[in-house]
């Protein structure tokens, strides 16, 4: 197994990439930070192509984890044009971008795609209108991929985590989950021999 993980420099993406590596899976981490294996905007096709090229040097790619995301919050009417583009690019376009390049080969040769959404993809939340729009879009895309994947070797897992203590938030929030715990649940689902197509992860 060779994996590509977007949003791998911090938060949940970092935790997933780290755990996969600990389990012996070669990982190409993608993030904006220069410290990433592949540095660049996940919403850009050029970044995705470089990530695939780097992963192919390690072996056959059979896992994609789309975990890139940005949170900008506030009441409706407070979002600038730049804010809207940033949220949509990071939370929706990046997911579509990587999937479009890997879905065909995964359908034919086998592979798993994990699209990390959010509970904001399941219910509307105040002060998160644009973020919800992006995540609902990513959920719709993921559900359509599931329908398209039937009868092929492609496996799709949609993950909707609740609040986590990640760099999304300037300070730890009481009651929020640890990203390492969420990552462990996701990696466990990837490795299960049974088909898990959807996970909603919240604190007990």
Could you write a compact summary of the structure shown?
It is built from five helices and nine strands; from the N terminus they run βαββαβαβαβββαβ. By secondary structure, the protein is of the alpha/beta class.
Overview of the structural elements:
With 204 residues, this protein is an alpha/beta fold. Helices cover 43% and strands 20% of the residues. The strands form two sheets. It has a seven-stranded parallel sheet, sandwiched between helices. A two-stranded parallel ribbon has the order 7-8. The protein is globular.
The CA-CA distance between the termini, in Å, is 32 Å
- How many beta strands in the DSSP annotation? 9
Determine the number of helices (DSSP H or I, runs of at least 4 residues).
5
The spatial strand order of the largest sheet comes to: 3-2-1-4-5-6-9
What is the assigned CATH homologous superfamily? NAD(P)-binding Rossmann-like Domain
CATH topology term: Rossmann fold
What's the architecture in CATH terms? 3-Layer(aba) Sandwich
**Shape designation:** globular
Q: Which residues sit in consecutive blocks of at least 5 with pLDDT less than 50?
A: none
Largest sheet: 7 strands, parallel
Judged by helices, strands and strand pairing, the structural class is alpha/beta
Q: What is the H/E order?
A: EHEEHEHEHEEEHE
Relative helix content: 40-55%
Number of domains: 1
Rg of Cα set: 16 Å
């Amino acid at each position: 197994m060779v994996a590509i993980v977007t949003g791998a420099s911090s938060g949940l993406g970092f935790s997933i990439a780290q755990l996969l590596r600990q389990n012996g899976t070669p990982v190409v981490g993608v993030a904006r930070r220069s410290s990433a294996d592949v540095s660049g905007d996940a919403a850009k096709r050029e970044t995705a192509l470089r990530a695939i090229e780097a992963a192919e040097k390690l072996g056959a790619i059979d896992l994609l984890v789309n975990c890139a995301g940005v949170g900008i919050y506030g009441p409706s009417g407070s979002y600038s044009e730049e804010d809207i583009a940033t949220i949509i690019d990071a939370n929706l376009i990046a997911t579509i971008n990587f999937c479009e390049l890997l879905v065909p080969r995964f359908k034919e040769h086998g592979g798993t795609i994990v699209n990390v959404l959010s509970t904001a993809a399941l219910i509307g939340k105040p002060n998160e209108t644009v973020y919800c729009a992006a995540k609902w879009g990513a959920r719709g895309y993921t559900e359509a991929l599931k329908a398209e994947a039937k009868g092929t070797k492609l496996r799709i897992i949609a993950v909707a985590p609740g609040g986590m203590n990640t760099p999304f938030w300037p300070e730890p929030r009481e009651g929020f989950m640890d990203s390492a715990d969420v990552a462990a649940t996701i990696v466990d689902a990837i490795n299960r021999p049974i088909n898990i197509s959807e996970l909603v992860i919240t604190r007990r």
